[in-house]
Amino acid sequence: MNGLEFEKRRFIIGLIATVIIAVYLVRLLTMQIMSDDYKKNADSNAFQKEVLYPARGLIMDRKGRLLVYNEPTYNIMVTMNDQIGVDTADFCRTVGMTQEEYEERMAEIKDSRRNVGYSRFTPQQFLTQIPAKEFSVIQEKLYKFRGFSIEKRAVRRYATTCCAHVLGDVAEVNPAEIDSDAYYRKGDYIGKLGVERSYEKDLRGVKGLHIHLRDARGRIKGRYQEGRFDRYPEPGRNLTLGIDRELQALGERLMRNKIGSIVAIEPSTGEVLCMVSSPTFDPHLLIGPERGRNYRQLQADPYKPLLNRAIMGQYPPGSTFKTTQGLTFLQEHIITPGTYYPCSHGFWNGRTHVGCHGHYSPVELNFAIQTSCNSYFCWGFYHMVMNKKKYGSYSAALTRWKDYMVSMGFGYRLGVDLPGEKRGMIPNAQYYDKWYKSRWNALTIISDAIGQGEVMLTPLQVANLGATIANRGYYYVPHVVSKVEGRAIDTLYTRRRHTMVEPRYYEMVVRGMRSAVLGGTCKGANLPGIEVCGKTGTAENRGKDHSVFMGFAPMNNPRIAISVYVENGGFGAHMAVPMAALMLEQYLTGELSPASQAKADSYAQKVIYYGTKH
């Protein structure tokens, strides 16, 4: 080997050695400085960090009446490193468990595969949610059992059995939730449904911390630096809902043994006054140690009580949708208030026929709304979609029509402050091009004109339609929370959303809805001294038709807009209208008259399931 080759090899070997040393140095630097894994392990040996849990925010109705509050409960924690010389037989008698259950629980805690992040130096949950009454007995003897300590927590309690879908529930965090938010650790609780979920960060508050110093044997020697680094918990923010507890309770009573929804909105703010989904459930079922079992039973129920039909149910709106058609046709100058269309027991055009009930013909807009004439709105839709001179093509005409529907809050989620809202369905030209291979016209899709066909809305969207008409052309995004303690609500809920229709045309539709209550399909909603405006709907279904109502009151300076949807309820006038009248009376007068109370009892006793499981 010559000198040059030797120098080359020495250089290469030296370079390899340098790289290896550099890699080890970088890794050592990462472990000791940049990574906090080892710091955490060292801290767990030197310190015991006691987490102090904040009180979760309270939830109240619009009048300040308590809906959800906290009740103290206790967890028994165990620190394995300190658990020395415990009389397990005495301990088991004290907490009310068998020796086998004790050993099984200890094995679960030590199993790092099931108990991720386990450390023998940190407290682990041994027993959870022990009520205050039971805990008082345990507390007297707990000092005898080294390594066992107390963690004070709280569980949610409900002041009412109603409003379950709106309020939601709280349960233990899952691994995915822990991974997505550093706030949580195993054993913490998080909102799972309703406002408990959508306002979780407001309700949960900020945790506190006490740091205790350990000696070399792991014994607690006092507070670290006399509590200099301790912090106290900050309670969660209280929520005030727009919900009226009495109105909500009446709605749930009326919908007992029925499938459907009642939604009421305050037009001037967008606050949701009630949100009934039926069947419902008692929120108390989802608290305490039986929560898991009860939740599985509710999930297995064929009538799906966990489904919030107010925001997740997607239904044909039926004739309530005719108001949107009248507004669109007026704004697009397809019709005027004096435009008459024929109705010979329905709409006839070639082979296309849409039936209608008997009334005089021809009819104008006010009478068409009053009597819910199918033919009138089919003709208006036909003349809009087929008007190539104005729009250029059927597709362009339908796109213009869809733009009006979207501006009224349909086809997309409104943005209510609850999880799980569905968007409904407003078909567009591309949808029909695909479905009919671009061979369609107004007659092909004529059912859209009367809220059938492919049109689907949620009960919340229908109630919002009532609020928009009440406001003569604008709405606020519906929201169930009206106030959050210590901060303003999102501006999403305080901005007016204007439709594409001028207020003067809304006045014409309002008059038609008032006529429907005075002498048309909504006569059952006529209340003494209150100018109610309404529109019925009878939504076709594979079984018995659904009963629908949409309206508001009073006609001027409206305070409430409402939608009622009863699956398989038949004609709108038979079920939805009288139930809506009771809800309007309750909210606007503060109580039901004796006659109305008797009527409410009667409707509460009606059973409408028809064997259909949804």
Say how many strands there are: 20
State the CATH topology of the largest domain: Beta-lactamase
State the domain count.
Answer: 2
β-sheet strand percentage = 15-25%
CATH superfamily of the largest domain: DD-peptidase/beta-lactamase superfamily
Percent helix range: 25-40%
What is the highest CATH level, the class of the largest domain? Alpha Beta
Helix-and-strand structural type: alpha+beta
Q: How is the biggest beta sheet arranged?
A: 6 strands, mixed
* Large-scale geometry: elongated
First-last Cα distance: 87 Å
Salient structural properties:
614 residues; 6-stranded mixed β-sheet; Beta-lactamase; 22 helices; 2 domains
